Structure prediction request, 251 residues.
Amino acid sequence: MPAQQSPAAGAAGGFNAVQKLFTNRGQGSGPDSGRRLVRRARGLRLPITGRYIPVMRSEAPALMPIFRSQHQAALLAWLLLHPGHEYTLTELAKKLDVPLTTLQREAQRLVVAGLLQDRTLGRSRLLRANPSNRAAAPLTQLLEVTFGPETVIGEEFNLTNAEHVLIFGSWADRYRGTPGPPPNDVDVLVVGDLDRADVYDAADRAQARLGMQVNPVIRTPEQWANDADSLVLQIKASPTVDVTPAGKAAT
Prediction:
């Protein structure tokens, strides 16, 4: 009596059949063997087991591809760089522009790993960083020099009369997923009627916190609206990260 084949063996057999189709095509004992393989493939049936649920997962972040996804890195960066605050999942989803269901999965993984803490308040789930985890301090340092500019620049350039604060250049390119070498500095555009000394002081404070050079560029609202300015045109056509308080509140 022949041995019964298990479902797992059947699934493996289906995979092997596909593998052979693409690795052995054209091989065989006769000149028509390749055509015979193609004809057989049309009738090939593969056993499919389990449930398949579509999941929105972002690519590994170009800024630091050691993280599982851009969403995971953004969530970790926001919470570890704001250790004294806690946020609901809905608040985080809006701030980070991440689908709520995706954020729930990423948050659960980080809670299980002990990097985040959660608690329930009414019907809301609140999240915060877990500073007692021994990986929290070095991970915060890593995130501060990679994803930190979004937080640090937004805080230090929160100046009176600053209508727009945009990060542009290589850091914004990496943040938006454009491949390339790690950025060595951060380019910041500040739009408004500002005292230049205040802007440069903000750049110095941000540079001290980030450990990387911060290059501020100032434009008046009239210059920002004027497309005759070549730098303004270049910035408008390139990836940017809006870190103005009003811009963050809008997201």
Notes: The first strand starts at residue 87 and ends at 88.
